[in-house]
Amino acid sequence: MVRQTITPMFLSFRLRLMESAMNALERASERRTPGRAAHLVTGLRGERAAFFWLRHRGYIVVARAWRSGRAPGDLDLIAWQGSTLCFIEVKTRTTRAVAPAHLAVDSRKRRVLRRLARHYMRQLPTRDVPTRFDILSVYFEKDEPAAFEHFPGAFDWEEAQR
After folding, report:
1. In a domain, 160, yes or no
2. Tens digits of residue pLDDT in 57-101
3. Under 8 Å between Cβ of 105 and 89
4. How many CA atoms lie within 13 A of 155 on its CB side?
5. Does 161 fall in a domain?
6. Which residues contact 26 (CB under 8 A, 6 or more apart)?
């Protein structure tokens, strides 16, 4: 019996190939549905770029744009980093001139994300799982992701008291 091993280089190549294919499919889809607002298209492209950025760093993404039937909003990405479950809010911008993207996650948005995360956690077989809330800022230049800023543990389950 011949045993084959998959090298990290092969996995990286396969992931880059999958990213290229998904980007091409998304671009074709965007041309076929021109009615979508530009900022929504930018946000979706940022979430896709964030997905692959995290995958390249070893995260296991288990959900994209997860919604609960009981609460408004969505969780952009849910991923495992080792034994920690990460709820990742992606903020995409085409410029840094106005303000850093991560500042858009205000107390109201954090409250929504916590509520959705609680709904997600109720589905797990055990709730005794280490969790954290991350923010991942994606900046585009010339229609390509140029920079990523990752803030692991950007906020907690409770709002800090002043």
Report:
1. no
2. 999 999 999 999 888 999 999 999 999 999 999 999 988 777 889
3. yes
4. 23
5. no
6. 44, 45, 48
Q: Which CATH number belongs to the domain containing residue 103 in this structure?
A: 3.40.1350.10
- Identify the pLDDT of residue 28: 66
Pairing of strands 144-155, 131-141: antiparallel
Per the structure, the count of domains in the chain is 1
d(CA 76, CA 85): 14
Report the C-alpha gap between 75 and 88 in whole angstroms: 7
Q: Among 146, 62, 70, 149, which Cα is nearest to 105's?
A: 149
- CA dist 13 to 36, 47, 104, Å? 32, 21, 34
Q: What is the pTM of this model?
A: 0.80
Provide the pLDDT for residue 82: 96
If DSSP codes are grouped into helix, strand and coil, which group holds residue 2?
coil
